[in-house]
Design a protein that fits this description.
The chain has 171 residues and is α/β, with parallel strands linked by helices. A hairpin with a 3-residue loop joins β8 and β9. α1 packs parallel to α2. Strands 4, 5, 6, 7, 8, 9, 10, 11 and 12 form a 9-stranded mixed β-sheet that branches. The chain has a 3-stranded parallel β-sheet with strand order 1-2-3. It is globular and about 50 Å long. It is built from 3 helices and 12 strands. The chain folds into 2 domains: 92 residues, Metallo-dependent phosphatases (Purple Acid Phosphatase, chain A, domain 2); 64 residues, no CATH class.
Length: 171
């Protein structure tokens, strides 16, 4: 990843942590796309600075660092999923979801295509919430987007100009 993209992601993370002051932050995989590197140390300093917050990672397919690296920066690692009340947090979306649970996943990097009157279109990152499954957009600014198929009653919120705007909620 280009250094500037990583710097911007870290700045956004710091701003969010300062603004929201969470007790717990859970990453749904693909925190880094490589083995140990200098960028991991930068993130480690951020985690150290926010010592009142618990940081957790549900491992994704690109999270290939050794367990020791996560432990060094006090990040709790979950191998495949994390169950929090009625939420089943995973990296990849679950295919079968028990009725009592709602699956939140992060692997897909969903995008919603908005169409203009003059045949213009734009694909924007989005939050997708279906009946039993939500798919969250990538946090980083250097990822691709996968267009999603929206079903009736699904909710979709695009991320545009640092705003979150609802674009789909068919009753």
């Amino acid at each position: 990843m280009p250094p500037r993209a990583n710097e911007k992601n870290v700045e956004v993370l710091i701003d969010l942590l300062n603004e929201t002051k969470p007790e717990r932050t859970i990453f749904l995989g693909d925190l880094f796309h490589s083995h140990y590197n200098e960028e991991w140390e930068v993130v480690g300093q951020v985690l150290k600075h926010f010592s009142a917050c618990s940081f957790e990672l549900v491992l994704g397919n690109h999270d290939i660092m050794s367990k020791l690296q996560y432990e060094r920066h006090r990040m709790l690692v979950h191998q495949q999923h994390l169950h929090v009340e009625n939420l089943w947090l995973t990296h990849e979306p679950m295919e079968e979801i028990p009725d009592s649970l709602y699956n939140l996943a992060g692997h897909i990097h969903p995008g919603a295509r908005l169409l203009g009157k003059g045949r213009q279109s734009i694909l924007l990152p989005c939050f997708y919430f279906g009946k039993q499954q939500g798919i969250l957009p990538a946090f980083g600014s250097f990822t691709g987007l996968a267009p999603i198929a929206v079903k009736k009653k699904d909710r979709v919120y695009v991320v545009a100009d640092e705003q979150i705007i609802q674009v789909a909620n068919e009753n």
